[in-house]
From TrEMBL:
Keywords: Repeat, WD repeat. InterPro entries: WD40/YVTN_repeat-like_dom_sf, WD40_PAC1, WD40_repeat_CS, WD40_repeat_dom_sf, WD40_rpt. The lineage of its organism: Eukaryota, Cryptophyceae, Pyrenomonadales, Geminigeraceae, Guillardia. This is Uncharacterized protein. WD repeats lie at residues 15-56, 57-98, 99-132, 141-174. CDD domains: WD40 (cd00200). PANTHER family: F-BOX AND WD REPEAT DOMAIN CONTAINING 7, WD40 REPEAT PROTEIN. SMART domains: WD40. SUPFAM superfamilies: WD40 repeat-like. It comes from Guillardia theta (strain CCMP2712).
Amino acid sequence: MRVWDLASMTQKACLKGDGGPINSVSISGDGKTAVSGSWSRTLSVWDLGSMTQKARLEDNSECAWSVAISEDGKTAVSGSDDKTLRVWDLGSMTQKARLEGHSKAVGIVAISGDGKTAVSGSNDETMRVWDLVSMKQKACLEGHSGWVTSVAISEDGKTAVSGSGMSTLRVWDL
């Protein structure tokens, strides 16, 4: 994983440690922590101040396709080939929950700015909404006729957008 200084357009570091191709990376709002997900069924947590690996989270049973980190850097959510999302506590570096609901691989995840809601997109053509306080599914949103390949959620958690492999974009009131 390469870390770049965008002011000078130079590489600050090349970090190694995942053990496989990196599929996704996310940075905390304060820019101090990054989390990467890889083919090696792991997530790596990185300290961007010291440019070192803080932890390797190894409880994904399949490839970690996507990862999102909360604005405050305390929580990460990963989406996997095993049809689940995992919620991680980045303070203790432990898994808080395993969320089930999708019928196919979870390819993309996002977390609201307040850290209370996550959305996920899957090859099952749905976007799901998750309550990260109760660790329960709030909704299953259907309407795409292809894989949901991208998701985004507003800062306040009230609106989400999803895109699919069939060239459609949907806007959702949550």
